[in-house]
Each structure stands twice: as C-alpha cells, then as structure tokens.
UniProtKB/TrEMBL annotation:
Enzyme class, broadest EC rank: hydrolase
Keyword Zinc-finger found: no
Claim: Protease is one of the keywords in the record: yes
GO molecular function annotation: metal ion binding; metalloendopeptidase activity
Taxonomy of the source species: Eukaryota, Metazoa, Chordata, Craniata, Vertebrata
Organism, as annotated: Mugilogobius chulae
Biological process (GO), any one: proteolysis
Gene3D superfamilies linked: Collagenase (Catalytic Domain) (3.40.390.10)
Protein name, per record: Metalloendopeptidase
C-alpha cells in the first residue's frame, strides 16, 4: 500500500527528506518537535511511521524530552 495516498495533497512538501543536525544525539520520537503519526492525513490514517517499529505511536509529547533539553543546551553552549 502506498502511504502517500493518505496525505493532504498541498502538504506534500512536508514529506520531503531534509538534512538535519541533531547535535550529536539520536533521532528522538518523544521530542516536542515530532509530528504525530497522522499529521497531514486526509482520512485519519498514518502518514508517518518509524522504520524500526511500524506500530510505534509518536508526536504527542506535551513537554520537552531529555534529548530536546540536551540539544538546546548544546546549541546555546549552556
């Protein structure tokens, strides 16, 4: 099944790959900056999945994760 059939057409740009700078930390699914699995969905189905665990839920954080805090501290030399 092509997951890209589920996104809102004018939101396609949100699925383009981008280079990131995680400041020496691993990818963080519990970050407050993480989109939810169903972000930009036109039918409520998932538009994003983890490569390692397709059932993983993410994007519902209501506070900064430990890695969020570490990245801010590294970015601003705190």
């Amino acid at each position: 099944m092509n997951l890209f059939l589920f996104y809102i057409t004018d939101q396609k740009h949100n699925f383009e790959r981008r280079e990131t700078n995680n400041l020496g930390t691993p990818y963080d699914f519990s970050s407050v900056m993480q989109y939810s699995n169903r972000a930009f969905s036109k039918n409520g189905e998932r538009t994003l999945r983890s490569w390692d665990d397709w059932d993983q839920e993410f994007g519902s954080a209501d506070s900064m994760s430990d890695y969020d805090i570490l990245r801010v501290n590294r970015l601003y030399n705190c």
